[in-house]
């Protein structure tokens, strides 16, 4: 994209669930970065808007009253929350040690013990930029510090998936050299059974995502060209790709491919998404690598 390209407007008034509004913030930051050629700070990104549009991540007029509290993560983690992960660490000892420590105990027990232990479990799910798919081409960087907070509402991943029952939520945004986003969301649940149920909700939503996306395209006067396919599966893990002309809102507008991953371990559900926008660069990722991505998330 050009350094002077105008950022796309992100619609926030209709995004009433956790997840999509925060994702809109990431999309807004990515779009703003496309105009400035540098990832902005959270404060800079939240202030960026076009043509009088509401700032990404902030409800539009009239939306704040109906939107659930806490649907947008604060600019910095709340007191006692986990610090953001290192932007330079790779898939090495730090993540291995964190996961080895946090995942050795039963996550169902962690979910019942309270915020501090749950936050530690979610922090153990962190993914470093170098571990993200297609890093050789995308050259991922952290967009802003990770945020962890309690969650008292459904989590909406995209137009197709809404997940109930999570107690805490950790989100980390990344930006590629093409100024396109990747987002990792980790959700904790009260026990393993609740996490398994949430995992199935994700699978069910993605299994019908082509139809859901096509219906949305028709509503906005677009050719219903959305196509979704499952690209990989492991024990308690799935990956999909969606090719479509996106409807701006939870997604960016325009021709694109979305990559979606979910892994359930114990009482934690990890979700990773990244996008390839035709307007930014030719698609370079080979979904045949998706099984290894799932294995990394589950490791």
UniProtKB/TrEMBL annotation:
It comes from the Bacteria. Keywords: Signal. Residues 31-113 are annotated as: Disordered. Residues 1-22 form the signal peptide. Residues 33-91 have a biased composition (Low complexity). This is PknH-like extracellular domain-containing protein. It comes from Streptomyces sp. NBC_00049.
């Amino acid at each position: 994209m050009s350094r002077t390209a105008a950022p796309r407007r992100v619609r926030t008034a209709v995004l009433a669930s956790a997840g999509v509004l925060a994702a809109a913030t990431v999309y807004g930051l990515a779009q703003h970065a496309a105009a400035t050629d540098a990832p902005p700070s959270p404060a800079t990104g939240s202030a960026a808007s076009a043509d009088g549009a509401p700032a990404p991540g902030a409800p539009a007029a009239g939306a704040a009253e109906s939107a659930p509290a806490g649907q947008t993560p604060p600019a910095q983690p709340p007191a006692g929350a986990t610090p953001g992960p290192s932007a330079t660490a790779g898939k090495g000892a730090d993540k291995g040690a964190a996961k080895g420590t946090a995942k050795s105990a039963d996550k169902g027990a962690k979910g019942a013990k309270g915020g501090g232990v749950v936050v530690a479990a979610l922090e153990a799910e962190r993914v470093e930029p170098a571990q993200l798919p297609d890093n050789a081409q995308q050259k991922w960087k952290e967009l802003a510090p990770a945020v962890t907070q309690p969650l008292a509402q459904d989590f909406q991943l995209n137009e197709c998936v809404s997940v109930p029952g999570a107690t805490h939520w950790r989100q980390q945004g990344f930006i590629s050299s093409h100024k396109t986003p990747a987002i990792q969301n980790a959700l904790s649940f009260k026990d393993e059974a609740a996490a398994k149920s949430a995992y199935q909700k994700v699978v069910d939503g993605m299994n019908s995502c082509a139809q859901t996306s096509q219906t949305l395209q028709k509503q906005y006067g677009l050719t219903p060209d959305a196509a979704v396919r499952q690209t990989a599966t492991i024990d308690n893990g799935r990956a999909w790709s969606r090719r479509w002309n996106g409807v701006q809102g939870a997604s960016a507008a325009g021709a694109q491919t979305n990559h979606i991953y979910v892994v359930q371990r114990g009482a934690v559900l990890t979700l990773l998404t990244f996008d390839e926008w035709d307007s930014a660069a030719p698609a370079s990722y080979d979904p045949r690598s998706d099984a290894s991505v799932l294995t990394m998330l589950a490791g």
